[in-house]
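Lab notebook, design round three. We kept the backbone fixed and only want residue identities now. Task for the bench partner: fill in a sequence for the structure below.
Input structure tokens:
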């Protein structure tokens, strides 16, 4: 039942930020009699939707919910009050809410005579809302995911730099869905120059807040006629990198590009956080990926592995990240595997 609630919660991806994704299921006599999820920022909470669906059948039932019911009334009424009024007998909660304004629901329900159990599927619930948890804990940088489409032999392009398309259409559709849940989409300067990407969400899921586009500049950068620069006034676009001359700064500014001088990747990420961007998905290239890994700045890795072999002259998915030995290598957590047509998506969490 809690896993069903977690599946429901995921349907809020890209639509509820900066709120957490939450799902709820009402169970009576072993049967689901109501369920719901937080579908839109500012809209009804998962508990309210599930209880409304259950109606009178909620009396004496058990509520499974992925996040501790809130105690405060904001855009919506306090969920704890609604649970008590419904005469639910028992509430099973996956994880406590770290938000100092919202937390405390478990204690309030217990004080009202509702049986409360905490911690069922906690790890899965925390993984679902990693961005929210990181923000609540006051991290100085955004949550960083790296998404790579690779060949079987871990190459992101052939020897000529051609990468379109390693993965198939179904995998590319998933990438647009994945992008919708982040505050920014980033690439390195070479990738921006060679691939000339749009870095936008184009799919069935329309994100509530359109992700900012970020280019981490190195020796190479997008041209003035690139897609990113041409559309910079339509979609917020930030270049992070070394200081430029006044003439260069003026050139980018005239086109709508916001160039922010930074010396390191971490400084760049902290700059994004100060601007309200609490998550970013980075989509290459290899040098940027390697640098992020080397500096321990990656929280999640999404690999799309395609059934093609590009050989040793193909461009590696990461460069500059060296591991002294197997004993010193980090072990990531495999969070999800999924078939996407002929491709395979594997989601790894760093911690």
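Proposed sequence:
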């Amino acid at each position: 039942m809690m896993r069903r609630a977690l599946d429901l919660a995921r349907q809020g991806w890209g639509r509820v930020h900066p709120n957490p994704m939450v799902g709820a299921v009402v169970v009576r006599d072993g049967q689901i009699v109501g369920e719901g999820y937080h579908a839109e920022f500012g809209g009804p909470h998962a508990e309210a939707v599930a209880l409304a669906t259950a109606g009178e059948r909620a009396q004496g039932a058990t509520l499974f919910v992925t996040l501790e019911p809130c105690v405060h009334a904001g855009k919506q009424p306090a969920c704890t009050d609604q649970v008590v009024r419904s005469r639910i007998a028992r509430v099973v909660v996956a994880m406590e809410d770290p938000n100092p304004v919202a937390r405390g629901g478990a204690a309030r329900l217990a004080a009202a005579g509702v049986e409360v159990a905490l911690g069922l599927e906690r790890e899965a619930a925390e993984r679902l809302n990693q961005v929210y948890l990181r923000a609540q804990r006051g991290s100085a940088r955004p949550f960083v995911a790296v998404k790579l489409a690779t060949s079987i032999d871990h190459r992101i392009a052939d020897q000529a730099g051609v990468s379109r398309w390693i993965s198939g259409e179904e995998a590319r559709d998933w990438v647009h869905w994945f992008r919708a849940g982040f505050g920014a989409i980033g690439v390195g300067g070479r990738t921006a120059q060679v691939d000339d990407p749009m870095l936008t969400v184009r799919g069935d899921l329309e994100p509530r807040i359109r992700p900012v586009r970020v280019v981490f500049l190195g020796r190479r950068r997008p041209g003035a006629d690139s897609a990113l620069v041409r559309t910079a006034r339509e979609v917020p676009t930030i270049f992070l990198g070394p200081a430029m001359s006044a003439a260069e700064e003026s050139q980018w500014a005239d086109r709508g590009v916001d160039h922010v001088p930074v010396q390191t990747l971490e400084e760049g990420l902290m700059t994004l956080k100060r601007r309200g961007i609490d998550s970013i998905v980075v989509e290459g290239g290899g040098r940027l990926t390697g640098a992020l890994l080397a500096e321990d700045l990656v929280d999640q890795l999404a690999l799309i592995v395609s059934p093609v072999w590009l050989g040793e002259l193909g461009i590696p998915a990461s460069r500059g990240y060296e591991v002294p030995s197997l004993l010193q290598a980090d072990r990531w957590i495999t969070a999800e595997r999924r078939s996407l047509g002929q491709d395979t998506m594997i989601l790894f969490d760093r911690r």
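Keep this in mind before ordering anything: The first strand starts at residue 23 and ends at 28.
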